[in-house]
Amino acid sequence: MATTGKIAEVLFENALETYEAQDKMLDLVDFFQPDAATMQNSNNIIWRPYQQHAPILDGFDLTGQEQDIIEECYPAVLGTPKNDFIKQRADDLRDTQFWEKRGKQSGRQQATEQNKLIANAIAIGGSKFYRSNDASGYDFVSEAQTMLDETQQVNNGRCFILNDRDNRKFALDLAGRQTLQGRPDAVWSSGQVANDVAGFDIFKGSFLPNLAGGADPAATVTGDQSFKPEGGTVSASGVVTNVDCRLANIPVSASGSYNVGDKVQFENSSVPVQSIGLADKNETGQAMTFTIVGKPDATTITVFPKPIAADDSGLTALEKAYANVDTQILNGATVTRLNTDTVNKTNLFFEKGSVEVLGGTLPVNLFAEFDGMRVLSEPMSNGQQMYMIYDGQIADLSFRWRIMSWYGVTVKNPQNCGVALTF
Q1: Are 325 and 315 in contact (CB under 8 A)?
Q2: At 401, is the pLDDT very low, low, confident or very high (cuts 50, 70, 90)?
Q3: CA angle 22, 411, 24 (to 5 degrees)
Q4: Is the CB of residue 286 less than 8 Å from the CB of residue 336?
């Protein structure tokens, strides 16, 4: 077993090193690993707090105007483990190089899968959107900067991921801006293209998803819409109720022609519902864009983010502090699909804190108590764990390896990330 154990360690170490060297997307977003017991008792869902807002009250005498605090939250969901499961006969264990190559391929596939899942989450859950035929790479990227800045989104580091074709289109322009000077070669070999272009670090990724679209279905909204910020509640009997602050269900004439991931805007009598600055509540002059994340039935769409209107007379001063659009979506408003290409390869942009990877932990040491089983476990530099469990079967002289990682991806702030398309 000493030789077998050595080969197993070679396989695991090569998988770990390759995974960590290529975990591009994980390094660009937030990572959080909650207490394992808490996750078990909450069915692998944990409710996380969202950004708070506060109203400004004018005047000297504020008697009776004391405000509460609305603690919005969103659910972070831990998915299922991502695995590589191998079975080989004993005579396949003679060449260590064979297992070195297999370990590297396992790590490469694990990294690609995680990159793909994070990118897919942003493509579907990110609400910012634009199509552009700019020839300049800077102009193309700076539109994303403008959209984020004019709505006063948090900036704790922003990234822009270009698909391979658009990277080829803009590479000369981006390289000509001398944004590569003074950077280590290793950074660029991992996919970074430019540094601080219109406030973004620019990367390229072959794992970016397509966005399906098509002709605008032009559905209409049924009824005047009024939404308010909601925090969790606890009833008199101690029942806890949480509310996902990101989503809103909007009744429409027909939802069947829309896709999950569609980017839409709403127009009252042909006038777009505008985005506003989250801090000063001033209108940006631009339409607020939303992403469809669900179709509960034939006459309802679920969108990110929840549209909270600054002119909604039914809201309190505190609730209006959370407003993100200038006016309510009214009965008969048109839903306009913006991604009108039948299919198009996405480019993604996001603020680091808008996307969160939730790490899971397994009590793999328990497997070591079973006869014939061995366990390897090691955290990567970003905190995410990788596991390997292996055993042998005396009946057929076979050995089995299972390499896995466990995580879930959540777009926690859809207003701070989105999709850019070229045409």
Answers
A1: no
A2: confident
A3: 10
A4: no
Based on its alpha-carbon atoms, the radius of gyration of the chain, rounded to whole angstroms, reads 25
CA angle 258, 264, 269 (to 5 degrees): 110
Determine the Cα–Cα distance for residues 192 and 24; give it in Å rounded to an integer.
9
Give the max Cα distance, the chain: 86
Site of tokens 């280590």: 184
Whole-number average pLDDT of the chain: 89
Three-state SS sequence of 290-303: EEEEEEEECCEEEE
Long-range contacts of 281-288 (CB under 8 A, 24+ apart): 281/310, 281/320, 281/323, 283/326, 284/150, 284/151, 286/147, 286/150, 288/324, 288/325
pLDDT over 50 (residue 16):
yes
Sequence-distant (6+) residues with CB within 8 A of 176 are none
Q: How far is CA 97 from CA 7, 83, 102, 359, in A?
A: 9, 22, 9, 31
Cis amide prior to 379 (ω within 30 degrees): no
SS3 14: helix
Q: Are the CB atoms for 224 and 328 separated by under 8 Å? A: yes
Q: How confident is the model at residue 187 (pLDDT cuts 50, 70, 90)?
A: very low
User: Among positive and negative, which fits the CA dihedral 286, 246, 352, 49?
Assistant: positive
Q: 2-22 vs 96-125: helix axis angle to the nearest 10? A: 30
- Between strands 417-422 and 128-132, the pairing is parallel
Tokens at residue 100, please? 């070195």
Token pair belonging to 59: 């005047």
- Per DSSP, the residues of 355-379 read EEEEE----GGGGGGSTT-EEEEEE
Residue type at position 119: A
Length of the chain: 423
Q: What is the mean pLDDT of residues 191-212?
A: 90
Question: In the prediction, which pLDDT does 172 show?
Answer: 76
Residues 82, 405 contacting (CB under 8 angstroms): yes
The confidence band for 181, taking pLDDT boundaries of 50, 70 and 90, is very low
